[in-house]
Amino acid sequence: MLRAIQGIYMLRPVWAVLLSLLAGAGLIAIAGVNPGEAYAALFGGAFLDYYGLASTLAKMSPILLAGLAVIIPLRVGLLNIGAEGQIYMGGLFSSMAALLLPEMSPVVQVPLCVLAGALGGGLWGLIPGYLKAYRGINEVIITILLNFIAINLVSYVAGGPMMQEGAPYPYSEEIREGLWLPYIMPHTDAHLGVVVGIVLCVVAWFVFRFTTVGFGLGMIGKNPVAATYSGIRVRRNVVAVMFVAGAIGGLAGTFEVLGLKHRLYHLFSPGYGFDGIVVAFLAQLSPLMAPVAAFFLSGLKVGGLIMQRAVGLESTVVEAIQGLVIIFVAASLAFRFDRGNWRRFLERRRLLDAGIAGGITNNSGGRS
Amino acid sequence: MTAQGLRLEKISKTFGDFKALDGVDMTVPRGTVHAILGENGAGKTTLMNILYGLYQPDGGRILIDGAPQRITSPRRAMELGIGMIHQHLMLVETLTVVENVVLGLPGQGMRLSLAEHARKLEALAKSFGFDIDPHQEVWKLPMGMRQRVEILKVLYRDANLIILDEPTSVLAPSEVEGFLEGLRRLRAAGKTIIFISHKLDEVAAVADRVTVLRRGTVSADLAVAGTPPSEMARMMVGRDVVLTTLEKTSPTSDEVLVRIRDLKARDNRGNQALKGVSFDIRAGEILGVAGVDGNGQAELAEALTGLRQAEGGTVELSGEDVSAAGVYERRHRLGISFVPEDRHGTGLVLDLPVYQNAMIRDFRESPFSSGPMLRAASARKVAEDWVKRYDVRLQSVDQAIRFLSGGNQQKLIFAREVECRPRLLVIMQPCKGLDVGAIEAVHRTVLAERERGTAILYISTELEHILSVCDRVAVMCAGRITGIIAPEEATPERIGALIGGLEEEKVA
Question: Which domain covers residue A125, as residue numbers?
Answer without folding.
Answer: 34-312
